[in-house]
């Protein structure tokens, strides 16, 4: 059996020394799409930031490709193959779609390689090809979210971490976003997806973790979690 591409072991994380996430252990296997779901304020974003190096864990370890990355900063984990797309898009609002994408590959020195990646990414996101010269802030909310994901892919990550991609989107755009994430995963990129929209996330995931008050309260195959009476009542209003 293959080893996990990502493993968090007894991870504690928070702010100013105060934990928000308590002893979380999880893993992502190569090629998997794993969802971390739960209500707003459960600690999902804090966990993601600690995994990718934007904040230092208060305890526990994070392993990527078998190596301990717990003390690495975000720019170092990016070079190893982790790309984090944060909540709220964080685009370069005044730059064009194409310039935003090129900046996603800032660590790549070869101009020819950047152009090749740009072409491959625009194949996945044809709407961005149509908008390549358009200023990012003039895109619709859904298009901006697609641009954020596409920019994350420009670093050619082994693991793409997506934080609340559905936030502020209309239901039809949420569906489109989930289809896009599935396509990225089917193309070979492992995905760790954080979502408040529990049902939508679990419908596309292989496995899931449910977080409540900074702790994992349930985990398993996504289809099993979808069928859980407890989760349906707590998160899906059923």
If you consult CATH, what is the topology? Answer: Rossmann fold
How many separate domains make up the residues?
A: 1
State the helicity in percent bands. Answer: 25-40%
Shape: globular
Discrete helix count: 10
Element pattern in H and E? EEEHEEHEHHHHEHEHEEHH
In CATH, what is the homologous superfamily?
P-loop containing nucleotide triphosphate hydrolases
Strand order of the largest sheet: 6-7-8-3-9-10
CATH-derived architecture = 3-Layer(aba) Sandwich
- Given as residue ranges, the uncertain stretches (5+ residues, pLDDT < 50) are none
Structure report:
- The strands form two sheets. Strands 6-7-8-3-9-10 form a six-stranded mixed sheet, sandwiched between helices. It has a four-stranded antiparallel sheet with strand order 2-1-4-5, with helices on one face.
- It is globular.
- The protein contains ten helices and ten strands.
- The protein is an alpha/beta fold.
- The longest helix is centred in the last third of the chain and has 16 residues, at 171-186.
- The protein has helices at 44-52, 74-80, 97-103, 111-124, 126-130, 141-153, 171-186, 198-204, 222-226, 229-235, and strands spanning 6-15, 18-28, 33-37, 59-64, 67-68, 82-85, 159-163, 190-195, 207-212, 215-221.
- The protein has one domain (30-52, 81-235): 3-Layer(aba) Sandwich (Rossmann fold), CATH 3.40.50.
How do the strands and helices of this protein lay out in sequence?
Blueprint: E1 6-15, E2 18-28, E3 33-37, H1 44-52, E4 59-64, E5 67-68, H2 74-80, E6 82-85, H3 97-103, H4 111-124, H5 126-130, H6 141-153, E7 159-163, H7 171-186, E8 190-195, H8 198-204, E9 207-212, E10 215-221, H9 222-226, H10 229-235
Parallel strand pairs: 3-8, 3-9, 6-7, 7-8
Antiparallel strand pairs: 1-2, 1-4, 4-5, 9-10
């Amino acid at each position: 059996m293959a080893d996990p591409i990502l493993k968090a072991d007894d991870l504690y994380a928070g702010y100013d020394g105060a934990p928000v996430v308590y002893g979380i252990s999880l893993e992502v296997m190569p090629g998997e799409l794993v969802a971390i779901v739960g209500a707003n304020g459960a600690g999902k974003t804090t966990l993601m930031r600690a995994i990718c190096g934007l904040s230092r864990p208060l305890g526990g370890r994070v392993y990527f490709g078998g190596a301990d990355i717990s003390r690495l900063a975000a720019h170092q984990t990016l070079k190893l193959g982790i790309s984090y797309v944060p909540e709220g898009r964080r685009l370069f609002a005044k730059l064009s779609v194409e310039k935003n994408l090129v900046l996603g590959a800032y660590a790549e020195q070869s101009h020819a390689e950047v152009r090749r990646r740009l072409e491959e990414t625009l194949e996945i996101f044809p709407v961005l090809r149509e908008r390549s010269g358009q200023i990012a802030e003039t895109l619709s909310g859904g298009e901006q979210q697609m641009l954020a994901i596409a920019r994350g892919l420009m670093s050619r990550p082994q693991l793409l971490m997506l934080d609340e991609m559905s936030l502020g989107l209309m239901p039809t755009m949420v569906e489109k976003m989930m289809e896009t994430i599935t396509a990225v995963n089917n193309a070979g990129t492992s995905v760790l997806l954080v979502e408040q929209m529990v049902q939508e996330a679990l419908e596309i995931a292989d496995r899931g973790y449910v977080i409540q008050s900074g702790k994992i309260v349930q985990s398993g195959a996504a289809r099993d979690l979808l069928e859980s009476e407890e989760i349906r009542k707590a998160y899906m209003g059923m």
